[in-house]
UniProtKB/TrEMBL annotation, chains A, B:
Listed GO MF terms: metal ion binding; prenyltransferase activity
Protein name: Polyprenyl synthetase
Organism: Arthrobacter livingstonensis
Pfam families, per database record: polyprenyl_synt (PF00348)
Alphabetic keyword roster: Magnesium, Metal-binding, Transferase
Cofactor: Mg(2+)
Length: 367, 367
């Protein structure tokens, strides 16, 4: 107990922390219930829920928090049950996406631990089971991701947003767009080198809009607003803030994927280059580099067996071509657009400050 | 126009045909809407919906039909919009399951055409894209299955069954159970040989209950009833019919997977043996065969490179051990239990006849 009243910033921070705790509690209770259901089928199946549970305990909860402040900005009550459920649903959706992404990208680690398909591979190896360990790992992780995707939707449906509601429409659109965006992403990995160099940046920009900016930023914020019954004008204002913010966020992610500190990002150095992600950073490189460098990029990106020296050369080309600096400029410009839009939103100052803090950490983070 | 009144059987058949047509129309309209949405993202992404569309035009529509007659038996109106949507949702769910199953099982064909991951692999090869064709095919099919799973749920949610309704509970349970059952299925493939022979049949029976009987038969019928507001007693009666029917259906599927005519099943001979499915048929074989035959089964099942001679020997062991005959006996016993329960259901005679015809074709089919 203190004799002084909390400052607006302090009470916002406390409210945000209470929400994060409530989302975690909701996820724990939901998954405990699912574990009981699975135990009735076979205790062998409990590992499916365990791997989901370990995945949703980590993460920055950025989507859930955007959803929360979108709700609060539109007049939703602090700590209401429906927004906790919406946050939990978004976290489950993200977990499902990560599980399948890691199979697609052949990523061995996630949030500092083994990815789900690697966990199942290890389970196979430890028991000395027959047939192929990697294949079992992938198969089990496909099913775990499907289960998690269903859980996400089950949680969302339990909110009780009507069939024709704006919130339901946003939830549906979010899922379709992110899956289409992810497909365009893997398509670009394989077909990018056959397409004109001059349009690489435009293609990469379209991909991050749908795969990332709308999914990770715009839709969560708008969803929260829609659940609270926000006006179409406020929802448009939310989009004007969150879409460029989300694009800046993804550009930051791309930079960290190549130039980030593995100790901070939790991903091995060069992972994004071995995966062959054709990001805006890569597009700018291809656009600006000389012919020999361009050819080096096209022939080396996506090779699983890249040496440290080759990774170093790819990084040098990105720096020397000015592509890294260009990406940083784009991040600044997009951030500026986003925060200008935020300043114009007709929402409570403390809530705007919370969104601003969330946005700043998203675009200037190091992990 | 005819001067004679239709017989009950004729009018039931016409009603069933009208429903199947309506479900197909609903799917076509829904997917056309999604194509428009994807076209706005990138025409490159349209292939995702195209592959789903081609998959949902085929199939026996068994789940949708069970759902329909469950609805009608509980007093639902013929051709009502909500039951058409429920049928379409079940078809989309099944399509999603097939897309991911085919990746898991490495099946090249589905419903007489290439499986979805093979379609994407071919697309890659045709364009001469870079990196790995198979890996691209799997990645794209994982995403297509995810999209289809989301579509299934979007369609179900549009029905507007309340958050706490029985129908929603059945839909949720169905998804969790089938995914857990599929996991147990792949787990049994790799861990079966390390477990006691004497419990192989019990393990395989549990798998088909959750992976298949509940998902493909019990839940669709109960879902239809629940949407029409059926009493708990009627829903229990539906389960008493549909659960053993579904088990018999899966046992028939297992027999066809080994002994079926490839020209009729659309799957290559020996496919199930190469996949290494440890079915009840396999369990009975392992239980009854002599030691050398048992060892031959354990060491050959699941090998992708099985020769025709090895497939022939596996088939012989299944016949000679009495396992095939034992499976047929189980199909008969389960069918008998199912049809006895059906006869006791308090539903209209014409509807019971429609369910009976559906059940008979499920357990005595050749494809």
């Amino acid at each position: 107990m203190t004799a002084f009243a909390a400052t607006p910033q302090e009470s916002t921070a406390a409210e945000q922390e209470a929400f994060v705790t409530a989302v975690a509690g909701k996820l724990t209770a939901f998954l405990a219930e699912k574990s009981m259901l699975l135990a009735g089928i076979s205790t062998d199946s409990l590992v499916l829920v365990d791997s989901i549970a370990s995945l949703v305990t980590g993460g920055k909860r950025m989507r859930a928090l955007l959803c929360y402040w979108g709700w609060r900005g539109a007049g939703g009550a602090p700590g209401a049950e429906e927004i906790i459920m919406a946050g939990a649903s978004l976290e489950l959706f993200q977990a499902a996406a990560l599980i399948h992404d890691d199979i697609i990208d052949r990523s061995d680690t996630r949030r500092g631990g083994p990815s789900v398909h690697r966990q199942f591979g290890t389970l196979h190896g430890r028991h000395g089971w027959s047939l192929d360990e990697e294949r079992f790992g992938h198969a089990a992780a496909i099913l775990t991701g499907d289960l998690c995707l269903s859980f996400s939707e089950e949680m969302f449906a339990a909110i009780g947003a009507g069939a024709g509601s704006r919130a339901r429409a946003v939830f549906n659109l979010m899922r379709t767009e992110v899956m289409a965006g992810q497909y365009l992403d893997i398509l670009e990995e394989v077909s990018g080198p056959t397409k004109p160099h001059g349009t690489a940046v435009a293609r990469a920009s379209a991909i991050i809009r749908f795969k990332s900016a709308k999914y990770s930023s715009e839709h969560p914020l708008v969803l929260g607003g829609a659940l609270a019954g926000a006006s179409p004008e406020l929802l448009s204002g939310y989009s004007a803030f969150a879409l460029p913010l989300g694009e800046a966020f993804q550009l930051r992610d791309d930079v960290l994927g190549v130039f980030g500190d593995p100790a901070q990002t939790g991903k091995p150095a060069g992972d994004d280059l071995r995966e062959g992600k054709r990001t805006v950073l890569v597009g700018l490189t291809i656009d600006a580099a000389g012919e020999p460098e361009r050819e080096f990029v096209d022939t080396h990106l996506g090779r699983q067996d890249l040496s440290d020296a080759e990774i170093g050369r790819l990084c040098s080309i990105m720096v020397d071509s000015g592509a890294l600096a260009g990406t940083e400029e784009m991040i600044s410009a997009l951030s500026s657009t986003a925060f200008t839009a935020l300043a114009g939103l007709p929402i409570d100052g403390a809530i705007a400050a919370a969104l601003s803090a969330l946005g700043r950490s998203a675009v200037s983070r190091t992990s």
